[in-house]
Amino acid sequence: MVYPAVIALGFDSIWFGIIVVKMAEVCLITPPVGLNCFVVNGVRPDISLLTIFRGITLFFVADVITIGVLLAFPGIITWLPALLR
């Protein structure tokens, strides 16, 4: 449903796919969804949910920096597939 609009706007489909995957990754570790954190809490109930969310802080910051770099320099994503064309 979104793909035709992305292509019509001139974005590279591989670039868009990588950005969507990275954004979904961030959504799975941050509140209020934080599904992966709730899974960890289910496996290790002795660790509080607050502790788990504190533990993902550095991963969240790293993901935000990664997404920022990928948005600023889209060639990082597309250079290898461009070699295959």
Question: What key attributes describe this structure?
Answer:
85 residues; single chain; mainly alpha; elongated
In short:
The chain is mainly α and 85 residues long. It contains 6 helices and no strands. It has one domain (3-84).
Which SSEs are present, and which pair or pack?
Elements: H1 3-8, H2 13-29, H3 35-43, H4 49-55, H5 57-72, H6 75-84
Helix pairs in contact: 2-5
How large is the radius of gyration?
17 Å
Uncertain regions: pLDDT < 50 for 5+ in a row? none
Q: What structural class should be given to the helix and strand makeup?
A: mainly alpha
H-E order? HHHHHH
Helix content: over 70%
Largest sheet: none
Q: Can you tell me the number of structural domains?
A: 1
Number of distinct beta strands: 0
Mean residue pLDDT = 93
| Beta-strand percentage range | under 5%
What is the overall silhouette? elongated
Amino- and carboxy-terminal Cα gap: 26 Å
Number of helices: 6
Model description:
The chain is built from 6 helices and no strands. The chain has one domain. The chain is elongated, with a radius of gyration of 17 Å. The relative contact order is 0.14. It is mainly alpha-helical and 85 residues long. The protein has helices spanning 3-8, 13-29, 35-43, 49-55, 57-72, 75-84. The longest helix is centred in the N-terminal third of the chain and has 17 residues, at 13-29.
